[in-house]
Amino acid sequence: MSRLQVVSGKGGTGKTTVAAALALALATEGKRTLLVEVEGRQGIAQLFETEALPYEERKIAVAPGGGEVYALAIDPELALLDYLQMFYKMGGAGRALKKLGAIDFATTIAPGLRDVLLTGKACEAVRRKDKRGRFVYDYVVMDAPPTGRITRFLNVNDEVAGLAKIGPIHNQAQAVMRVIKSPETEVHLVTLLEEMPVQETADGIGELRAAKLPVGRVIVNMVRPAVLDEAHLELAQSVPRTALAKTLSSAGLGGARRGGLAERLVDPLLEQAEEYAERYALERDQHAVLAELGLPLHELPLLAEGMDLAGLYQLATELRKQGIS
Amino acid sequence: MTLDAVRTLDVDPLLDDPETRIVVCCGSGGVGKTTTAAALGLRAAERGRKVVVLTIDPARRLAQSMGIDSLDNTPRRVKGIDESAGGELHAMMLDMKRTFDEIVEAHANGDRARQILENPFYQSLSAGFAGTQEYMAMEKLGQLRSRDQWDLIVVDTPPSRSALDFLDAPKRLGSFLDGKLIRVLMAPAKMGGRAGMKFLNVGMSMMTGALGKLLGGQLLQDVQTFVAAMDTMFGGFRTRADATYRLLQAPGTAFLVVAAPERDALREAAYFVERLAAEDMPLAGLVLNRVHGSGAARLSAERALAAAEMLEAENLEDSRIVDQEGGKAGVRNSPETPADSAKSPESQGGSHNPGSAAAGSDTPEEGSPASDRTDGTDQSAEQPAEQLTTLTAGLLRLHAERMQLLSREQRTRDRFTALHPEVPVTEVAALPGDVHDIAGLRAIGDRLAAGD
């Protein structure tokens, strides 16, 4: 299992949730993982039901078996000042640059610098060792930008290395690329069984492969339980309404006669079955598209009660069961 | 339903009002912003307005159906719409690099334009690094508006990392262009023929030194040449950015926040509402997409589940009897060994797919269950009866799932309306599949206008 796990996905597919569940799953049994957020949305804090994360590695959860999950929300501005101090002993210059608006420029307008800082910080955490020469984190899981931007985001260092042909930025960018393009990194894509996210996943994989970035797994999120199989969906189209009404009535749901409570349930229930059948067919098609991608496929269930901390642990267990860690 | 107390957003009066010139759809990723923008545009056009829809990143099939899948950065007239009310629909997909290039070409003369377009720093900047899309969307909106060719412009916003990057874009650009940094960057490049040294005080030369150390000499030079070449255009950028910002605040603009009834999406929506208010941007309301309903809402999830379990229990009883009879008389031609069938009732836990038992037995070897069902002979009456019970149980479980979804959606919606009771809401009922043609957009438009 690679030590840098990058999780991307189309907006709305739950990539933050999957990244958090993955961090928990990988921490199980005494491991330590760092969960990194790069988009300043504080999604991790909300998931773990804690206050907003500062720019500081902080323990946010204990995994089953004594493992630990740390979290870090990378702030590009602070990361830049960090760098200036760490590598060039330019703390003073950093402050002056900030006053000039150069830091703001660098982190919001200057091409790619922001992304360089974000990926750079994550790679630094991957490589960091303690005094005894062991890695501080067994795994670093990154809640990355969405599929549409992921290749550019990860590849930005290549571009920057080309743009800044010499100098510290060039060296830094190259060092980051060495980690990201190595087997030390895996990029996972989260999707739903819907047409647009699946299309975007297929496109994203194509782009990642073209950029020679290591593609990991496809994780299908919010999979709804199969309630009716094909045989029953077919039966639902031909079943006599009166028979259905009688069965509903026998289950204590009111009268089966015309206008009775059970009888009045028949139409809406069959209508819902029809919608289900339509969705079922769509999902089956999308599943086939995903299967053709030739990547390991994982499925996480839709949680009926909505997403909360308990649900997160449930998803982590599910990921372990499916052998992701 | 608490929603009765909430103000409803009337889409049609908004679209019909000749005073409405710009509609901006914003919201987090994956909530159906692009589809909503396209559906609103189509509806306004079919109600008689001359509309252009500016989309950022439409789904391929939707773009194809609107005829805007080729990126040429100019609006195309959409075919296949009802123009009997005198309206027209045009649509375009934003090409940010092209938009940026066009600005350069329009505002710099030949040589200088080429100098900029060939600058490596410019090429990276325009190819879509963080933020460029937002600037260019605003730029394009300004262009479309100033052409004054359309009654109504509907804008889709980029799926920004932070919700309102596109609102910050003009200001950011402005503060950068006015800032000292520009002067620092431009100082050495300007030094050449002018008496630059006088302006370049010690502090500044120290700064360029630091920048050079950080960026590498050659990149700094690229940046400097870029900035120097863009110098004449900066004023224009700033003016246009300011104008677009004011345009967004003007009464002719209506912001629609788009969301889905999910926790994260509605949290983002609340943030949008607050930011828009802080920026004095006119918010028309919230479009809540993909809301589920049920024709049998009076049957609660709990009752439906209880009834389903009851039916499944009956089935188990029956199948046990059938199995026992089968063991004796050999009526049931099952491939299962008696030991297996004795085990199966225990293995069928509550969460087990209720369909699987019946599906397994519905095999051709078992005679012809289909014909049994139609001719109604009661020789194997148990078989269709069992299928009917599992089907009914399945329908009830499906309904329970729907009701749970409904109440989850209701809870998240209530949280939003409690925070922002002043925001009018329109709900769009969920469609089972994706929308990728004009008919689908029209259906969404109907649902938008119906409000439920």
From TrEMBL, chain A:
<dbReference type="InterPro" id="IPR016300">
    <property type="entry name" value="ATPase_ArsA/GET3"/>
</dbReference>
<dbReference type="GO" id="GO:0005524">
    <property type="term" value="F:ATP binding"/>
</dbReference>
<dbReference type="GO" id="GO:0016887">
    <property type="term" value="F:ATP hydrolysis activity"/>
</dbReference>
<dbReference type="Pfam" id="PF02374">
    <property type="entry name" value="ArsA_ATPase"/>
</dbReference>
<feature type="domain" description="ArsA/GET3 Anion-transporting ATPase-like">
    <location>
        <begin position="5"/>
        <end position="180"/>
    </location>
</feature>
<protein>
    <submittedName>
        <fullName>Arsenical pump-driving ATPase</fullName>
        <ecNumber>3.6.3.16</ecNumber>
    </submittedName>
</protein>
<dbReference type="InterPro" id="IPR025723">
    <property type="entry name" value="ArsA/GET3_ATPase-like"/>
</dbReference>
<dbReference type="InterPro" id="IPR027417">
    <property type="entry name" value="P-loop_NTPase"/>
</dbReference>
<keyword id="KW-0378">Hydrolase</keyword>
From TrEMBL, chain B:
<dbReference type="GO" id="GO:0016887">
    <property type="term" value="F:ATP hydrolysis activity"/>
</dbReference>
<feature type="domain" description="ArsA/GET3 Anion-transporting ATPase-like">
    <location>
        <begin position="20"/>
        <end position="291"/>
    </location>
</feature>
<dbReference type="Pfam" id="PF02374">
    <property type="entry name" value="ArsA_ATPase"/>
</dbReference>
<dbReference type="InterPro" id="IPR027417">
    <property type="entry name" value="P-loop_NTPase"/>
</dbReference>
<dbReference type="InterPro" id="IPR016300">
    <property type="entry name" value="ATPase_ArsA/GET3"/>
</dbReference>
<dbReference type="InterPro" id="IPR025723">
    <property type="entry name" value="ArsA/GET3_ATPase-like"/>
</dbReference>
<feature type="region of interest" description="Disordered">
    <location>
        <begin position="317"/>
        <end position="384"/>
    </location>
</feature>
<dbReference type="GO" id="GO:0005524">
    <property type="term" value="F:ATP binding"/>
</dbReference>
<protein>
    <submittedName>
        <fullName>Anion-transporting ATPase</fullName>
    </submittedName>
</protein>
<feature type="compositionally biased region" description="Basic and acidic residues">
    <location>
        <begin position="317"/>
        <end position="326"/>
    </location>
</feature>
<feature type="compositionally biased region" description="Polar residues">
    <location>
        <begin position="344"/>
        <end position="354"/>
    </location>
</feature>
